[in-house]
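Structure, all two chains, one model.
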Amino acid sequence: MRVAIENLEFEYGPGRFRLCIPDLQIEAGARVAFVGPSGSGKTTLLRLLAGIVTPQSGTVTVGEVPVNELADAGRRAFRIRHIGFVFQDFRLVEHLDVRENILLPYRLNDALPVYDSIESQVNQQAERLGLADKLDSPVDELSQGEQQRVAICRALLPRPELLLADEPTGNLDPKNKDRILDQLFQQAESAEATLVMVTHDHALLDRFDRVIDFTKFHKPETPNE
Amino acid sequence: MNSLWLAWLYLRRRRVAAGMMVAGVALALYLPLAAHWAADAFDEALGARAAATPIIVGARGSRFDLVLHGLYFRARSEGTVAHGEFTALRDAGYGRVIPLHVQFTAGGQPVVGTSLDYFEFRELQMARGESMALLGDCVLGANAARELNLSPGDKLKTDRKNLFDLAGDYPLQLNVTGVLSATGTADDEGVFMDVKTAWIIAGHGHGHDESESNATNSPSAKLVKTHLEITPKNMGTFHFHGDTTALPLTAILVEPMDAKGTAMVLGRYQHSGQLQALKPPVVVDEMMGMVMRVRQFLDANYALVAGAMGMLLALIVALSRRLRSREMETLFLLGCSRGTQFALQAAELLIIFAAALALALAAAWATVGWARDYLTTLAG
């Protein structure tokens, strides 16, 4: 699924952080890394691509759909059906066990109907990510690394066409870091999905088709604006 | 369905907090439920027995006391009605007339002196043994037999009213001849006997033992006797002194055969200075009117409690929303609409209310079930 951004301008509020991207194209199936200092807008762009927030001007097109022009419900449905998002802070629901956290998007959205083999899909995905024996554990009893893997498992389960990952290896040890990256790349490849990942780990950049440095997109607000 | 499932998972994890909320709501629901059901059960029990008792005649005084005395054998101190009045009513042919003498207890159960007509009138059936036939015989209500652990063939001594009154009544040892089937009414509590036996307990009649006539006539010989007993040997010696028409009854039940009979009985006592005739359904309705007013007062209190509970719940929900704002944001990020978020919280409240309602209903049902027997005899 290709991504196209044109004349994008976004700000959280007057006098606050502002992101300006005149033109950005990401080809379908590409593996792209976003790098740049903290606060340069990497996570914000992921949220714009996912339709969680919308720009003040410009267009964000994912596949053939101008995401920012959809209504709230349309953006939500599009995100659920086509985009997987691994959040930096995991975004797990602490009163649910691992299995229910992975299944949560299905429970919450009619756009993702629960199918018969969903349980076996969960088991397989958990097996791949080393979570098979943790499925019935409460998530707040897991280590940071395990929680990260649960978040990844949840994002991968619907086999998204665009996978957005916000520092998914940030909390992992080297062994698990490689394992998770392998999984992400493998899933993306098998589903012919586009992978966009935010990372601060420059040792990983060799594995990506393209690296986008965000320093050039961040436009500091002037006092007069 | 998913909302309910997720709500259940949330509450299961927060079981202590959820349990406290369920308990609080259940208590707020239980109190009015139990009070209403108990009042209804009381109303129903009182009303049914009153409806089955057309007229009660007794000494003037509290109308409520006389009706409760006639229906529930509640002790009454306000005067008596002469046996002669009973015979006069019976001979007038207005309908069925039944004497009642309820003044004593046996093993804590009310001693009911009456006639065999009472059993027919109340449609009482013998569960075991036989009906009373001789002086000194008694028949026990189902609960009385169970409480006293007595069966046909056993003996039962009446309670002495005053331990220090040597010249007063002596306990009479009764022969239990039968036990009645349970009716769920005050009859289950009674110790029934012929009214003449009740008069003997009251000291209006007595017999003579052979040993008594042979003994020295010293007061000490009488003092060692702790109770009376009517035996086949001494039964023939029992007798009543004086005018038997003046012997006391505590009430008379009348079942007129028609409206004219009813009018005649009521009219007979309309201007009497000593006696009154009451229609129990009317008096009970009046009594229940008072209960209703108390109930309305309680209802207002329950409404206030429910209002306070509602406000507390609203506060808890508002605080919970604030505490769970990150969780709600996560749900939003995972594609949950605001409507689904609302449905989730509504489902949590629904489960809490359903659990609380089930708990309150079960508790109220158990309470009223337990109290039903107590309520039916409450007036007694």
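The longest helix of chain B spans residues 280-323.
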